[in-house]
Amino acid sequence: MSWIQHARRGTWATRDRVLPAAIMALVTYCFLLVFLFLAPGKLSTPDLSATTNDFLSFWVAAKSAVQGDPVTPYVIKDFAFLQQESLGEGRFYSFFYPPVFLLYLLPLGVLSGVAAYFAFQIVTIIATGASLSAILGSRYGFLLAAALPLTMTNAVYGQNGMLSAAFLGAALAALAVRREILAGFFIALLIYKPQLGILIPFALIAGGHWRIFASASVCALLLIGLSVLVLGGDAWLAFWEQREFASGVVAEGLVDLHKFISISAGAGMLGAPTWLAYGLQAIVSLSVLALVVWTWNRRSVDFADKVAVLTAGSLLATPFALCYDFAILCVPIAFFMARRKRQGAADWEDGLMFLTVLLATISRVVGEMYSIPLGPLACLVFLAIPLRRIVLGSGVGKNQSPSITGGISSRSRSLNG
């Protein structure tokens, strides 16, 4: 068999190759994180009292809220002042998340900065692993969550990509087995990052999942009410008042374009004027919305393909998606792996998944060094997997090579008609 046939059928993606590679990757990440924290000025202050990455804003916000001041994280000058001890003057990280996210972060406010960082990353990776294990039907979901390069990207930034993956994965795993109230609850938990969930209501309506839609709406209102009860209404007022500064972050170049993975940022990196960049973003967003509605409305489309269209589409639909948000791709990858165990993989499916992860992993570095926007390309490559199946039929290849996964309950197939 030629190398092209191996690549097409995915015979290289066997347990005895993938499993050791995943374990070696995980060990490498651990050593790399230790080095980055011990090396002065990399990810922490010299005395290891606080991180110097994005997580600093999470920790300082949580600490402020625990001390009885949940408003300061939304007052730019005051919040920047709180970070000066760690970052010095002239640098600070904003906190653009609604008070619901501040509610999630409260336990971190009683820990030291570095301890809070590791607690947050470890807990969110474990939570993601639990949701992926539910999808896969095996404990390999924990290894998948920890070993993907996208996880390391998120960890270096100290961001919440794995938390988003945990909630999204749990919601879709519950939906796959028709636990609709539970699915709605986990969807509601994503309210802290509405740009990633903007397509979910349309998918639910198109698929006729009205109970989930209702459950998510009620749970979201309850979460908002709980945040008001715990943090007070002033936090929400302050959050609303900073919206003008938040909306100008991208337009004024306060965040480097190479960190984004959106169409508008990619066009900007290539020199397109603002009107053209956002015009292209609008066209792509509407196209992706139509694609999500179409796939979720078709009972003949496999649920794993619906998940992939929704997830990759969500990253393409918003202008405010960054490289650490790629972490949510582990959810459709898990669904693909579960299907691979049941019925084999379609031609090129494994290769396209590998290419997506590769492009997503190097997108920030390549964007910074060469101004080449690989982020949107990674999403488009990933979309090719479900679209190829949908257009060409099931397209299941004859590859039945050993897989490292089990598979989600067969009850999920009832969603496909």
From TrEMBL:
Task: Please list the residue ranges that the record marks as compositionally biased, kind Low complexity.
Answer: 401-417
Keyword check for Transferase, yes or no: yes
Q: Which organism is it from?
A: Roseibium limicola
Q: Mark the transmembrane ranges.
A: 21-39, 101-120, 132-150, 156-177, 184-206, 212-237, 275-296, 316-338, 372-391
Q: Does the keyword Zinc-finger apply?
A: no
- Give the chief site where it resides: membrane
- Which Gene Ontology terms of cellular component type are present? plasma membrane
UniProt keywords, alphabetically: Cell membrane, Membrane, Transferase, Transmembrane, Transmembrane helix
Subcellular location(s) of the protein: Cell membrane
* Positions of the UniProt region annotated as Disordered: 397-417
Bilayer topology reads: Multi-pass membrane protein
Top-rank taxon of the source lineage equals Bacteria
Q: Which GO terms describe its molecular function?
A: hexosyltransferase activity
Q: Which family does it belong to?
A: Belongs to the glycosyltransferase 87 family.
**Family annotation (InterPro entries):** GT87
- Cross-referenced Pfam families: GT87
- Please identify the protein, giving its name as recorded: DUF2029 domain-containing protein
